[in-house]
Every structure is written in C-alpha cells, then in structure tokens.
Design a protein that fits this description.
Elements: H1 6-15, E1 20-23, H2 28-41, E2 45-49, H3 51-57, H4 59-70, E3 77-84, H5 87-96, E4 100-103, H6 110-124, E5 130-135, E6 139-142, E7 145-147, H7 157-166, E8 171-174, E9 179-180, H8 191-201, E10 205-207, H9 215-224, E11 226-231, H10 233-249, H11 256-277, H12 284-299
Parallel strand pairs: 1-2, 1-11, 2-3, 3-4, 4-5, 5-8, 6-9, 8-10, 10-11
Antiparallel strand pairs: 6-7
Length: about 300
C-alpha cells in the first residue's frame, strides 16, 4: 500500500533538496497516468483535487479511484485537496479519505485565517491528515478562484513565522510572486522572501503557479525551501491539445479508445518530465521505505 500522508514526504524531500510534483487530475485517466508515471520512474507523487473536480465527480468516487490506484504501486502517493475554501467540503475530504487538505483563507484578515486554519487542524489531526495553509494572495486564475494582479500581495515574513509557530503544518503556501495559470510577462519571484520565510519557519514551502516557470527559477525555489511544486494549467492544456491533435491527424478515426490512449500517453510524458525536473525521479521507493520504517517504530 502506497497511500501516504504528505507531511513526512515533504520533510524528506526538503532534507534531500528536491521537490514533489503536485498535479491536479481532471478524471480517472489522468489519475491513472500520473500514478503509472510515478511508478515507472520511481518518484513520489502528490495528487491534488480542486473543489471544481470534487463538485463534478463527488468525494466518494475520487477517494475510491485514489485508493485503488495508489494501493498497487510501491511509491508514496498522497491525495490532497488544493485551495479548499468551503469548510464543509474540507471536512468531508478529511472524513472520506484524503490524506492531506489545504485550507485557503488567504483572502481573510490574518487573525481569521489563523482561526479557520486551526479549526481544520483540529479536524484533521486526529485523522492523521496533514495541512497546507496560505498567507498573502497568489494572483492569477486557479479553477474558479480569480485574484486580479492588483489584489495579489506577497506574504509578510513576520506573519509567516507566527503562522507556522502556532500551527504544525505539513507544507506552507506563501505568496512569493508566482501566479496561477500561464504568465503574461516575466514572473517576479521574490527569492529573498522564500529564503527568509523558510529560515524563520523551517516548514517546507509549496510553490503555487509552477506552470510556465523556467527550470532555473524552479530549481532556485527548491534550493531555498520549496518542496512541493504545483502543476495544473499545463496538464489542462496537454489534456485538451493531445485530444484535438489526434483528431486533426486522424480525421476519419472515431474509435474513442485510440483517442483516449493518445491523450493518456501525452499526459504520462508530462508527468514524467515534471517529476524528473523537480528531482523526484529515483526517490520514491527509498522515501516509502523510510516512511514505513518510521511508522513501524512509532507503533512498536
């Protein structure tokens, strides 16, 4: 069984100076493609669902797909809720089988953000579920969440330090200049801010807005403290473009499984590429072994 809570995954990745790729699946096939890709290159994986995806398929279906797929491979995989804003949805994810959840109250005043995050923490901790939380506001478009450029603002390092002191987070999302979606111009990543926040908090950081960042920028973010890199928009484009491309190249072929197979292979290649770029290839089985040994020591 490779179903794994991501708190230990991220701490191991941080210690070893690489990041775990976090992809937002859009259906069962994209879930299966990312799990097969992780298994084939021996990489840890964070499979993270958006609120929109949960509303479309339902908690139970997504949880069952994850449990089935993750239980058949020997690399660590976690099921994570991305940008959870609805408290009822977050609670149901915890109750249904998610191994990690993100509470995104970054649009609230700081004290309200802490209060809501503590509420989720109280629900999640007894269930062994890890927490991601965010301060500052990350710009761009993520599913149905739209933050205009003028409304986005960077995280305050003093607030970040207090946030992580009061809450034992699995990973910390701080607005550091990246944006969701494709970039329209040169991204202005605040590397000094990443460095400052990680040194103060010693909590692995999440890099939101990974699509469109060049390898050098991502590598520097990982070196400074980011242990989770989110890829969503890139997957959406491959999902749609590979389907359209197959139809364009084979206009008379209306066998659905051939189209779906081409789409599946295109997604799998994307997943392998990003896992390798972030440094996770070849690290999965060793990470899983360390986590299992730690769990056995705890229960002994």
């Amino acid at each position: 069984m490779a179903l794994t809570s991501f708190k230990q995954m991220l701490r191991i990745a941080r210690r070893e100076q690489y990041a775990i790729a976090a992809f937002n699946p859009v259906d069962y096939a994209s879930m299966r493609a990312m799990v097969e890709a992780a298994s084939e290159i021996d990489a840890p994986l964070i499979m993270q669902t958006s609120a929109k995806t949960i509303n479309y398929y339902g908690h139970e279906a997504l949880a069952s797909w994850y449990k089935h797929l993750a239980s058949n491979v020997d690399v660590p995989i976690t099921l994570h809720l991305d940008h959870g804003k609805d408290m009822d949805m977050i609670k149901k994810c915890i109750d249904t089988g998610w191994t990690a959840v993100m509470i995104d109250a970054s649009d609230k005043p700081f004290e309200e953000n802490i209060r809501l995050t503590k509420q989720v923490f109280d629900w999640a901790t007894p269930a062994g579920v890890a927490i991601e939380a965010e301060i500052g506001e990350i710009g761009g478009v993520e599913e149905d969440i739209i933050v205009a450029e003028e409304d986005a603002h960077l995280a305050n390092p003093d607030e970040a330090e207090r946030f992580c002191r009061e809450l034992d987070l699995g990973v910390f999302a701080a607005a550091i200049g990246t944006a969701h979606g494709y970039y329209h111009g040169e991204p202005k990543v605040a590397f000094d801010l990443i460095d400052d926040i990680y040194k103060r908090t010693q909590t692995p950081m999440a890099l939101h807005g990974g699509t469109g960042l060049d390898q050098e920028t991502i590598a520097r973010c990982i070196q400074l403290g980011c242990s989770k890199v989110n890829i969503s928009t890139n997957l959406k484009h491959v999902f749609v473009d590979s389907f359209v491309e197959y139809n364009r190249n084979n206009p008379s072929d209306y066998e659905p499984l051939k189209v779906l197979s081409a789409q599946f292979e295109a997604m799998k290649e994307l997943f392998k590429e990003k896992m390798t770029e972030f440094g996770g290839a070849g690290k999965g089985s060793a990470m899983l072994k360390e986590i299992r040994e730690s769990e056995n020591m705890t229960t002994a």
